[in-house]
Protein backbone atom coordinates (compact mmCIF):
# COMPACT_ATOMS: atom_id res chain seq x y z
CA UNK A 1 0.00 0.00 0.00
CA UNK A 2 1.37 3.42 -0.88
CA UNK A 3 1.83 5.38 2.32
CA UNK A 4 1.12 8.89 1.13
CA UNK A 5 -2.63 9.40 1.41
CA UNK A 6 -4.57 6.18 2.02
CA UNK A 7 -8.16 6.91 2.89
CA UNK A 8 -11.48 5.26 2.30
CA UNK A 9 -13.68 6.09 -0.64
CA UNK A 10 -17.14 7.42 -0.29
CA UNK A 11 -19.73 5.87 -2.54
CA UNK A 12 -22.72 6.43 -0.37
CA UNK A 13 -22.44 9.99 0.50
CA UNK A 14 -25.79 11.62 0.81
CA UNK A 15 -26.51 9.14 3.60
CA UNK A 16 -30.28 9.03 3.75
CA UNK A 17 -29.91 7.78 7.28
CA UNK A 18 -30.00 10.86 9.40
CA UNK A 19 -26.33 11.67 9.04
CA UNK A 20 -26.55 14.98 7.16
CA UNK A 21 -29.12 17.73 6.64
CA UNK A 22 -29.81 21.28 5.62
CA UNK A 23 -29.68 23.85 8.39
CA UNK A 24 -33.07 24.62 9.77
CA UNK A 25 -34.49 21.14 9.30
CA UNK A 26 -36.61 20.30 12.32
CA UNK A 27 -34.96 17.41 14.05
CA UNK A 28 -36.16 15.79 17.20
CA UNK A 29 -33.42 16.31 19.78
CA UNK A 30 -32.14 12.99 21.01
CA UNK A 31 -29.67 11.87 23.60
CA UNK A 32 -26.70 14.24 23.70
CA UNK A 33 -23.44 13.09 22.23
CA UNK A 34 -20.35 13.58 24.40
CA UNK A 35 -17.34 14.81 22.48
CA UNK A 36 -13.74 14.53 23.63
CA UNK A 37 -11.12 17.05 22.58
CA UNK A 38 -9.42 16.51 19.26
CA UNK A 39 -6.21 14.70 20.17
CA UNK A 40 -3.11 13.24 18.60
CA UNK A 41 -3.71 9.81 17.19
CA UNK A 42 -0.44 8.94 15.46
CA UNK A 43 -2.13 7.83 12.22
CA UNK A 44 0.24 8.92 9.47
CA UNK A 45 -1.23 7.46 6.29
CA UNK A 46 -1.42 10.26 3.75
CA UNK A 47 -1.66 8.66 0.32
CA UNK A 48 -4.37 6.64 -1.33
CA UNK A 49 -8.07 6.50 -0.79
CA UNK A 50 -10.48 3.61 -0.68
CA UNK A 51 -14.08 3.52 -1.77
CA UNK A 52 -16.56 1.36 0.05
CA UNK A 53 -20.05 2.79 0.42
CA UNK A 54 -23.03 1.97 -1.74
CA UNK A 55 -24.65 4.20 -4.34
CA UNK A 56 -28.16 4.16 -2.89
CA UNK A 57 -27.01 6.63 -0.24
CA UNK A 58 -26.17 9.13 -2.95
CA UNK A 59 -29.63 10.64 -2.91
CA UNK A 60 -30.15 14.38 -2.74
CA UNK A 61 -32.75 14.12 -0.01
CA UNK A 62 -30.33 12.15 2.14
CA UNK A 63 -27.83 14.98 2.32
CA UNK A 64 -30.40 17.75 2.17
CA UNK A 65 -33.05 16.45 4.54
CA UNK A 66 -31.55 14.30 7.27
CA UNK A 67 -29.35 14.45 10.35
CA UNK A 68 -26.51 16.94 10.59
CA UNK A 69 -26.92 20.43 9.19
CA UNK A 70 -24.06 20.85 6.74
CA UNK A 71 -24.12 24.63 6.48
CA UNK A 72 -24.70 24.96 10.22
CA UNK A 73 -21.93 22.49 10.92
CA UNK A 74 -19.47 24.64 9.01
CA UNK A 75 -20.05 27.48 11.45
CA UNK A 76 -18.95 25.40 14.43
CA UNK A 77 -16.03 23.18 15.34
CA UNK A 78 -15.81 19.45 14.88
CA UNK A 79 -16.79 18.95 18.51
CA UNK A 80 -19.90 19.21 20.68
CA UNK A 81 -21.03 22.57 19.35
CA UNK A 82 -20.53 21.51 15.76
CA UNK A 83 -22.20 18.12 15.97
CA UNK A 84 -24.69 17.75 18.79
CA UNK A 85 -26.16 21.20 18.12
CA UNK A 86 -26.64 20.33 14.45
CA UNK A 87 -28.71 17.20 14.77
CA UNK A 88 -26.33 14.40 15.73
CA UNK A 89 -27.90 12.33 18.48
CA UNK A 90 -26.94 9.11 20.19
CA UNK A 91 -29.42 7.22 18.04
CA UNK A 92 -28.05 8.53 14.76
CA UNK A 93 -24.47 7.97 15.85
CA UNK A 94 -25.25 4.29 16.44
CA UNK A 95 -26.13 3.98 12.74
CA UNK A 96 -23.16 2.50 10.81
CA UNK A 97 -23.83 4.84 7.88
CA UNK A 98 -23.58 7.89 10.12
CA UNK A 99 -20.31 6.51 11.42
CA UNK A 100 -19.06 6.04 7.86
CA UNK A 101 -19.96 9.58 6.94
CA UNK A 102 -18.13 10.97 9.95
CA UNK A 103 -15.16 8.73 9.18
CA UNK A 104 -14.82 10.25 5.72
CA UNK A 105 -15.58 13.79 6.82
CA UNK A 106 -12.95 13.72 9.56
CA UNK A 107 -10.34 11.90 7.48
CA UNK A 108 -10.66 14.54 4.76
CA UNK A 109 -10.63 17.53 7.09
CA UNK A 110 -8.24 16.76 9.94
CA UNK A 111 -4.55 15.95 9.96
CA UNK A 112 -2.98 12.63 11.03
CA UNK A 113 -2.20 14.24 14.39
CA UNK A 114 -5.87 15.02 15.04
CA UNK A 115 -8.98 12.98 15.65
CA UNK A 116 -12.58 13.33 16.73
CA UNK A 117 -13.86 11.23 19.63
CA UNK A 118 -17.58 10.96 20.40
CA UNK A 119 -19.17 9.11 23.31
CA UNK A 120 -22.80 8.02 23.28
CA UNK A 121 -24.67 5.41 25.30
CA UNK A 122 -21.50 4.17 26.88
CA UNK A 123 -19.85 3.60 23.48
CA UNK A 124 -16.87 5.65 22.34
CA UNK A 125 -16.24 6.30 18.66
CA UNK A 126 -12.95 7.71 17.42
CA UNK A 127 -12.56 9.06 13.89
CA UNK A 128 -8.92 9.72 12.92
CA UNK A 129 -7.80 12.58 10.75
CA UNK A 130 -5.77 11.86 7.67
CA UNK A 131 -5.50 14.28 4.76
CA UNK A 132 -5.49 17.51 6.74
CA UNK A 133 -7.36 19.63 4.23
CA UNK A 134 -9.03 21.70 6.96
CA UNK A 135 -7.27 21.18 10.31
CA UNK A 136 -8.57 24.55 11.51
CA UNK A 137 -12.02 22.99 11.80
CA UNK A 138 -11.02 20.94 14.84
CA UNK A 139 -12.21 21.63 18.36
CA UNK A 140 -14.98 23.64 19.98
CA UNK A 141 -13.65 26.91 18.61
CA UNK A 142 -12.93 25.65 15.12
CA UNK A 143 -14.79 26.81 12.04
CA UNK A 144 -14.90 25.99 8.35
CA UNK A 145 -14.86 28.95 5.96
CA UNK A 146 -15.58 28.85 2.23
CA UNK A 147 -12.20 27.44 1.24
CA UNK A 148 -12.41 24.79 3.97
CA UNK A 149 -15.88 23.83 2.79
CA UNK A 150 -14.76 23.48 -0.81
CA UNK A 151 -11.70 21.39 0.13
CA UNK A 152 -13.70 18.98 2.25
CA UNK A 153 -16.41 18.79 -0.42
CA UNK A 154 -13.92 18.00 -3.19
CA UNK A 155 -12.39 15.26 -1.06
CA UNK A 156 -15.75 13.71 -0.26
CA UNK A 157 -16.98 13.91 -3.86
CA UNK A 158 -13.78 12.24 -5.07
CA UNK A 159 -14.49 9.34 -2.73
CA UNK A 160 -17.93 8.52 -4.09
CA UNK A 161 -18.29 5.01 -5.50
CA UNK A 162 -21.38 4.03 -7.45
CA UNK A 163 -20.99 0.30 -6.82
CA UNK A 164 -19.83 0.53 -3.25
CA UNK A 165 -16.69 -1.44 -4.05
CA UNK A 166 -13.63 -1.28 -1.81
CA UNK A 167 -10.74 -0.11 -3.95
CA UNK A 168 -7.79 2.19 -3.60
CA UNK A 169 -7.65 5.45 -5.48
CA UNK A 170 -5.10 8.23 -5.52
CA UNK A 171 -6.52 11.68 -4.72
CA UNK A 172 -4.33 14.60 -5.80
CA UNK A 173 -4.63 18.35 -5.76
CA UNK A 174 -3.01 21.67 -4.84
CA UNK A 175 -2.82 20.96 -1.11
CA UNK A 176 0.04 19.40 0.90
CA UNK A 177 -2.24 16.56 2.03
CA UNK A 178 -2.91 15.61 -1.58
CA UNK A 179 0.66 15.73 -2.87
CA UNK A 180 1.55 12.26 -4.23
CA UNK A 181 4.73 10.32 -3.55
CA UNK A 182 6.92 9.11 -6.45
CA UNK A 183 5.78 5.55 -5.79
CA UNK A 184 2.15 6.61 -5.90
CA UNK A 185 2.71 8.44 -9.17
CA UNK A 186 4.29 5.34 -10.72
CA UNK A 187 1.60 2.93 -9.54
CA UNK A 188 -1.55 5.03 -10.03
CA UNK A 189 -1.36 6.27 -13.58
CA UNK A 190 -4.93 6.09 -14.91
CA UNK A 191 -6.36 9.56 -14.56
CA UNK A 192 -10.10 9.49 -14.00
CA UNK A 193 -11.68 12.89 -13.28
CA UNK A 194 -11.46 16.04 -11.17
CA UNK A 195 -14.10 16.78 -8.52
CA UNK A 196 -15.15 20.09 -6.98
CA UNK A 197 -18.11 21.86 -5.43
CA UNK A 198 -19.52 22.90 -2.06
CA UNK A 199 -21.78 20.58 -0.09
CA UNK A 200 -22.17 23.08 2.74
CA UNK A 201 -24.24 25.71 0.96
CA UNK A 202 -27.83 25.73 -0.32
CA UNK A 203 -28.19 23.73 -3.52
CA UNK A 204 -25.00 21.83 -2.73
CA UNK A 205 -23.29 22.37 -6.11
CA UNK A 206 -21.16 19.38 -7.07
CA UNK A 207 -19.24 18.91 -10.30
CA UNK A 208 -16.77 16.74 -12.09
CA UNK A 209 -14.80 17.11 -15.28
CA UNK A 210 -13.45 14.10 -17.11
CA UNK A 211 -9.78 13.48 -17.79
CA UNK A 212 -8.84 14.27 -21.39
CA UNK A 213 -9.93 11.44 -23.65
CA UNK A 214 -12.33 9.98 -21.08
CA UNK A 215 -16.01 9.63 -21.96
CA UNK A 216 -17.25 8.02 -18.75
CA UNK A 217 -16.69 7.86 -15.00
CA UNK A 218 -18.02 4.44 -14.12
CA UNK A 219 -16.59 4.41 -10.60
CA UNK A 220 -18.56 7.47 -9.55
CA UNK A 221 -21.44 7.75 -12.02
CA UNK A 222 -22.15 4.13 -12.82
CA UNK A 223 -22.98 2.97 -16.33
CA UNK A 224 -24.30 6.32 -17.57
CA UNK A 225 -23.21 9.91 -17.05
CA UNK A 226 -26.89 10.81 -17.23
CA UNK A 227 -27.40 9.19 -13.85
CA UNK A 228 -24.37 10.79 -12.22
CA UNK A 229 -25.00 12.35 -8.78
CA UNK A 230 -22.79 15.26 -9.86
CA UNK A 231 -22.96 17.61 -12.83
CA UNK A 232 -20.53 16.45 -15.51
CA UNK A 233 -19.23 19.66 -17.06
CA UNK A 234 -17.15 18.06 -19.82
CA UNK A 235 -13.43 17.59 -20.26
CA UNK A 236 -10.94 19.01 -17.79
CA UNK A 237 -8.87 20.04 -20.80
CA UNK A 238 -11.32 22.88 -21.45
CA UNK A 239 -12.63 23.31 -17.92
CA UNK A 240 -9.53 23.77 -15.74
CA UNK A 241 -6.97 26.55 -16.08
CA UNK A 242 -4.22 24.89 -14.08
CA UNK A 243 -3.25 21.56 -15.58
CA UNK A 244 -0.60 19.98 -13.38
CA UNK A 245 -0.39 16.56 -15.02
CA UNK A 246 0.24 13.83 -12.47
CA UNK A 247 -0.45 16.32 -9.66
CA UNK A 248 -4.03 17.02 -10.74
CA UNK A 249 -5.97 20.00 -12.08
CA UNK A 250 -7.37 23.09 -10.35
CA UNK A 251 -9.08 26.39 -11.11
CA UNK A 252 -11.92 24.40 -12.67
CA UNK A 253 -15.19 26.00 -13.74
CA UNK A 254 -18.76 24.93 -13.12
CA UNK A 255 -19.57 25.93 -16.70
CA UNK A 256 -17.41 23.49 -18.64
CA UNK A 257 -15.04 26.18 -19.87
CA UNK A 258 -12.57 28.12 -17.78
CA UNK A 259 -13.25 31.82 -17.67
CA UNK A 260 -17.01 31.40 -17.52
CA UNK A 261 -19.11 30.65 -14.46
CA UNK A 262 -17.66 30.06 -11.00
CA UNK A 263 -14.10 28.82 -10.68
CA UNK A 264 -12.96 26.40 -7.98
CA UNK A 265 -9.33 26.34 -6.89
CA UNK A 266 -10.10 23.62 -4.34
CA UNK A 267 -10.35 20.44 -6.42
CA UNK A 268 -9.46 16.77 -6.16
CA UNK A 269 -8.22 14.73 -9.10
CA UNK A 270 -8.45 10.94 -8.89
CA UNK A 271 -5.96 8.51 -10.42
CA UNK A 272 -6.63 4.77 -10.53
CA UNK A 273 -4.05 1.97 -10.47
CA UNK A 274 -2.64 1.00 -13.83
Structural description of this entry:
The chain has 274 residues and is α+β, with helices and mostly antiparallel strands. It has a domain at 4-137. It is 22% helix and 26% strand. The protein contains nine helices and 15 strands. The longest helix is centred in the middle third of the chain and has 14 residues, at 96-109. It is globular and about 50 Å long. The chain starts with a strand and ends with a strand. The model is unreliable at 1-72 (pLDDT under 50).
List keywords for this structure.
274 residues, three-stranded antiparallel beta sheet, 15 strands, 26% strand, globular
Helix and strand arrangement:
Elements: E1 4-9, E2 20-21, E3 34-36, E4 46-51, H1 60-65, E5 68-69, H2 70-73, H3 80-83, H4 90-93, H5 96-109, E6 115-120, E7 123-128, H6 146-158, E8 167-172, H7 182-187, E9 190-197, E10 206-210, H8 218-221, E11 231-235, H9 236-239, E12 240-243, E13 249-253, E14 263-264, E15 268-272
Helix pairs in contact: 5-6
Amino acid sequence: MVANRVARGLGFFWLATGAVACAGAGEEPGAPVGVAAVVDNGLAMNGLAMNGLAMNGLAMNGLAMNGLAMNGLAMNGLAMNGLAMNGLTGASLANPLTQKFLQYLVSCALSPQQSLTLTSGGTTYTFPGQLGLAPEWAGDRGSCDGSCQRWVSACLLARVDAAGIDREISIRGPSPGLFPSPKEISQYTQREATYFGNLFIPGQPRFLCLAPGQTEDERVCGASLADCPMTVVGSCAQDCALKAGVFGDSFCSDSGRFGAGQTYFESATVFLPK
